[in-house]
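Quick illustration, no need to memorize.
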Amino acid sequence: MFSDSLSPADVFRVLGGGAGERSLMTYEQSLDAVLYGDSKILRVGVSGGWTLCQESFGCTGLAGDYLSRLSASGQALLFFWNSEALTTFAYARRGKVEASFEPGMPGAMVSALDSPFMRRIRALSVARDGGLNDLYRAARDILSLDLRRSDVERDLPALRIAR
């Protein structure tokens, strides 16, 4: 998940409430199912002007109004995939979800908002190939989302929340 208007502390507040155990954690550590399989892990950092939140062992961003809350004063993006190959993309702007769909599948929810990004998303929502990679490229090209591998792999503040 990404937010262009919230700090890492604010993203923790929206997604985790204040519950859970905090620590610093690398990307590899956050994927250790032996240690953390009974919890969801949220790691939060900054990359290219956006606050990023990488979640392991959960799908918080797919539930409730989290994406709307992450975008209350700006924009938020969700790129979700898991080991069962479920993929989901969502985009919210100023508290309203403007797009939410599984790439390559029928039934995409895409608003009529007219902007360069939404025009590209509408075109990609009906594509049968490309998936999350094409959606990420659209966010990179139009919204200046510039995720660096080093920003994800380094130690980041993490919140472990029991399921």
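The chain has a mean pLDDT of 87.
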